[in-house]
Design a protein that fits this description.
The complex is a heterodimer.
Chain A: H1 2-17, H2 19-41, E1 48-54, H3 60-71, E2 75-79, H4 82-90, E3 96-100, H5 104-109, E4 117-120, H6 125-156, H7 163-179, H8 195-226, H9 228-232, H10 239-269, H11 274-301, H12 305-323, H13 334-339, H14 343-355, H15 365-388
Parallel strand pairs in A: 1-2, 1-3
Antiparallel strand pairs in A: 3-4
Helix pairs in contact in A: 1-10, 2-8, 2-10, 3-6, 6-7, 8-10, 8-11, 8-12, 8-14, 10-11, 11-14, 11-15, 12-14, 14-15
Chain B: E1 4-15, E2 18-29, E3 33-37, H1 44-51, E4 59-64, E5 67-68, H2 73-77, E6 80-83, H3 95-105, H4 110-123, H5 139-150, E7 157-161, H6 169-184, E8 188-193, H7 196-202, E9 205-210, E10 213-218, H8 220-225, H9 235-243
Parallel strand pairs in B: 3-8, 3-9, 6-7, 7-8
Antiparallel strand pairs in B: 1-2, 1-4, 4-5, 9-10
Helix pairs in contact in B: 3-4, 3-5, 4-5, 5-6
The chains are: A mainly alpha, B alpha/beta.
The complex binds adenosine-5'-diphosphate (ADP) and magnesium ion (MG).
Chain lengths: ~400, ~250
């Protein structure tokens, strides 16, 4: 066991020697984290630009609509011409443009139905759909005010009140209602934990861990080329100890990156409790072990460093793809059955249970069992393959 | 009758039908420097790899220090040190770190490994360069470290596979002196080379190998005496006479 630790230690020391490699592998989780933070962390408030073609320029109500949209915190308004809008939609520079028709103001005044035209590519994306809902609600608001006003005028106009008085009173009442809505919305922040982080962090962690496959896959061929493998095989070091050492080295390297990523997420997004954090570390450790064991299987099978790299990359990508880490997988589908092949699925499920669903280690029996099984089988298989290969033992 | 420390019996090894070693038998006496002399491709390295438990012979067995390699490979590994033909060092690490690491692999404690590493570095004239990274060393310095690593754990039997190939005369001389010093302390050494004078100077007995077989085995003096007065002929004459003048790969 001491000799296995010596091997692991040597491997880690070589890793620490290469400053570029070290900086890269430690910076990578930090940069990834910064990207997640940029994407989901900083802006918790929705914000978008509404691109509008106003064909009713000079119209009273298009002006009011634009003013009210501009007044919303969530929206900026950008005006453009119809030809410009068509060109940008064509080139997919924009996903949605709102066209205020020529007869917008006249139509509203005369009580006819008017149409706002939403020109869009596909479903306009999530952002487009939100913009559309916001614009629609502002337009509804304006038309509702107008209808109320019409009806009040119709009901009262024969009395002593002038149309002007009615108009200003209705306007005032509507303004008051807007200032002080009957149904108010209050926000209460509970931690700063946007869903997106919960949703993506497990996938990002598991992807990092899978790098361990590639790194471990290279270790035996590299030593073979250096000549040190053959030399080690003439010492008292047993092959079992050699593999144990490589396995530990793979774990420690992959684990360092994962810990950095998780500590940062904990500190900034508070997505963990102390207990779920420790649990997640344990999951990460076992998962890194499974990745290292698979890496050793490749290491025993490949002949050149290039083969090791490509086999490692291929397995990593395949595991990520079929696991549904980044695409939702329908329950009961073939993909779901297929995804059970990927160790990523189990780690991802375990992290999701801990991070997003508030579960505990007690809920992770299946996942941890499978990952531990992969470790055992991977180590045995790699040992067997090493025996079978030329120059192996 | 001197004690036979290593006995190789009828070793065979083929690579894809090509017979690299084809029925090799010899014995090495305790405390001698035994030379394996032969042109490139003769099968010297393949023989050493089999003797040092790296490669399994297709046929035949080896006994080292009374242990059969087939049945007691681990016991054999406790007795041997190997200086491979190609450098086998962790080039990103320092010389001392390499020695200490292989010392630990040879079963030394941390303390013992450090002490031996210093001694062996001094032996090959690198006591001042222990901290230097291997990839910053000259070819001769690397070869000397490669030899020093093989000495870690004080093996009873040392395999040296062409330890002086392609290095400067000073480094070569240092290696000769180191090897002679080790023999004087009682170490048994198997030395392969294709340099004739080297074998003549260092070896107590020499096996001449060609085409995977041993074609002559004796002391340098006796080998030379076979073709003329030993003072007038060189080993090279013997070698060319035995192996012919055709070119080798
Ligand atoms: N791993 C190997 N695979 C295929 N052929 C080999 C291998 N090792 C050695 N050989 C062949 O066996 C023969 C003997 O090689 P070797 O033992 O290295 O000779 P030497 O050390 O005397 O130069 C050569 O023809 C060489 O090409
Ligand atoms: Mg050779």
């Amino acid at each position: 066991m001491v000799r296995a630790l010596q091997i692991a230690l040597l491997q880690v020391r070589i890793y620490l020697q290469d400053k570029g490699d070290l900086a890269f592998s430690l910076l990578l989780p930090i940069v990834t984290f910064a990207l997640i933070y940029g994407a989901f962390g900083g802006q918790t408030q929705f914000h978008a630009t509404a691109h509008i073609v106003n064909e009713d320029s000079g119209g009273t109500y298009s002006k009011i609509l634009l003013e009210q949209l501009d007044a919303l915190d969530e929206l900026d308004v950008e005006l453009l011409s119809l030809t410009e809008a068509d060109r940008k939609l064509e080139r997919a520079d924009l996903l949605m443009v709102i066209v205020i028709p020529e007869d917008f103001s006249d139509g509203l005044v005369s009580g006819e139905q008017v149409q706002l035209l939403f020109k869009q590519r596909g479903n306009a994306g999530q952002e487009g759909q939100i913009v559309r809902a916001l614009v629609q609600s502002v337009a509804d608001d304006i038309s509702l005010g107008l209808q109320v006003q019409e009806q009040v005028i119709a009901a009262l106009v024969d009395g002593n009140t002038t149309i002007h008085q009615i108009e200003t009173t209705v306007e005032r009442l509507l303004d008051e209602e807007r200032e002080n809505p009957t149904v108010a919305v209050a926000e209460e922040a509970i931690g700063s934990s946007p869903d997106a982080v919960n949703q993506f962090l497990p996938g990002i962690i598991t992807m990092y861990v899978l790098f361990a496959i590639m790194l471990t896959a290279r270790t035996l061929v590299e030593e073979r080329q250096l000549g040190t493998l053959e030399r080690l095989l003439t010492t008292r070091l047993s092959v079992g100890q050699l593999f144990a050492g490589k396995f530990l080295a793979g774990i420690s390297r992959g684990f360092i990156q994962t810990v950095i990523l998780m500590v940062l997420s904990y500190a900034v997004f508070q997505i963990f409790t102390p207990l779920s954090f420790v649990s997640a570390l344990l999951v990460a450790l076992v998962f890194t072990g499974a990745a290292s064991a698979l890496g050793l299987v490749l290491a025993s099978a490949v002949r050149t460093p290039d083969q090791a790299t490509w086999a490692g990359v291929f397995i990593t990508m395949a595991m990520v793809m079929i696991s549904g880490t980044f695409f939702p997988i329908e329950e009961g589908s073939v993909m779901e059955i297929l995804s059970r092949i990927s160790i990523n699925t189990y780690a991802n499920d375990a992290f999701t249970t801990l991070i997003a669903e508030g579960g505990s280690m007690a809920d992770l029996g299946l996942e941890m069992g499978v990952l531990a099984g992969v470790i055992v089988i991977g180590l045995l298989l790699s040992r067997y393959l090493f025996k079978a290969m030329p120059g192996g033992r | 009758m001197p004690e036979e420390y290593l006995v190789a019996q009828d070793l065979h090894k083929s690579f894809n039908e090509h017979k690299a070693v084809n029925g090799v038998s010899f014995a090495i006496h305790k405390g001698e420097i035994f030379g394996l002399l032969g042109p490139n491709g003769a099968g010297k390295t393949t023989t050493i790899r089999m003797l040092s438990t790296v490669l399994e012979p297709d046929q035949g067995d080896v006994t080292i220090g009374g242990h059969s390699m087939k049945r007691e490979a681990d016991a054999v590994r406790n007795l041997i040190g190997v200086c491979p033909q190609e450098l086998a060092l962790y080039v990103e690490l320092g010389a001392l770190d390499n020695l200490v690491f292989f010392g630990r692999m040879a079963g030394l404690s941390s303390q013992e490994a450090k002490e031996q590493a210093k001694t062996h570095l001094a032996l090959v004239g690198l006591e001042e360069r222990g901290k230097g990274r291997i990839d910053k060393f000259s070819g001769g310095m690397k070869r000397r470290v490669n030899l020093a690593v093989a000495l870690m754990g004080h093996p009873e039997l040392l395999f040296l596979d062409e330890p002086t190939v392609g290095i400067d005369p000073q480094s070569r001389n240092n290696i000769y002196e180191t090897i002679e010093g080790l023999r004087d302390k009682g170490m048994t050494i198997l030395y392969t080379t294709h340099y004739m004078e080297e074998a003549d100077r260092l070896c107590d007995r020499i096996a001449i190998m060609d085409g995977g077989q041993i074609i002559a085995l004796d002391t340098p003096h006796e080998l030379k005496a076979q073709i003329g007065p030993p003072e007038q002929v060189t080993l090279e004459d013997v070698f060319l006479k035995l192996t012919g003048r055709s070119l080798r790969d």
